[in-house]
Design brief:
alpha/beta, Rossmann fold, 2 domains, five-stranded parallel beta sheet
Amino acid sequence: MLKACSISKSINRQAVKILREKNIIVDVWSGEKSPTQDELKELLRIYDILMIGVKERITKDMISSIKSPKIIGTLSIGLDHIDKECLQSEFINVVNCPSANTTSVAEHIFALILDASKRIQEANELVIDGKGNKNFLSSKPNDITGKTIGLIGAGNISKKVVDIARVFHMPMLCYTAHPDNHMELTEKGVQFVGIDKLLQKSDIVNVSVPLTEQTRNLISREKVSLLKENAIFINTSRTEVTDVDALVDFADKNPNFYLGLDIDIGEYSEVLAKRRNNVIVTPHIAGCTDEAIQRTFVECAENIVNVLEKRKEEKDIEER
């Protein structure tokens, strides 16, 4: 029988059931703290299947001695916490969860958009400060219906954003490195354009891309300067995709520009700690709803089973 270990103690019953139905023994990490690099390496040696989160970094040295098939299931969309040598190894299959939190993140994106456009955060602060009168708002709220939204990325999250944007009758622009792979979006009214045109023409910009060498600092200080001075800019992707300092500077110089970030704060804790009417920050919680977490465990388990079934099919073909 194969043996699996989940680093997360909150793995749900449905995911465990999916694995056990395939005769996989499921253990849970017993340590009080997250495993160290050495402990992760030992777990990879002992177990056939390892289920990790984004906090667990898998490096090439951890797999140097592995000579038998392993599966690493990450409870995330991104794979930037796993070295490319692991992804390319003939002995290791890596599976992620690209669909489980799609709805949750798309909802959070529109929560940030609506919070910014309706001045909800600022209005709440005014009430707390004893200035509960609309006349104290720095500017009047805006509608998002009919506003042009620019989507950077055309993956599952952007596709869900498109569905919601259509409810608000929003013209939609999209930049992606491979538009030919997403032509079905044109049937929903999406127009593919270059990134510069998107930044210049959009009233609202949303970034939903994985962190890769191609997307690192995709929204640079130079790109930020192309934005409308009264635009709304949202990023729920990895922090490194955008120049956070440049975006905050742009917000400080343009009071009608609204910035919504759902990111790992990290090195930007000090600059983002300042109260601003036009900057809203949440600590990368968009995909962490109760429902999304439960779906993620199930999707990870299903993808692990799919790898095992594919291996069996390939073995059967070889033996014929």
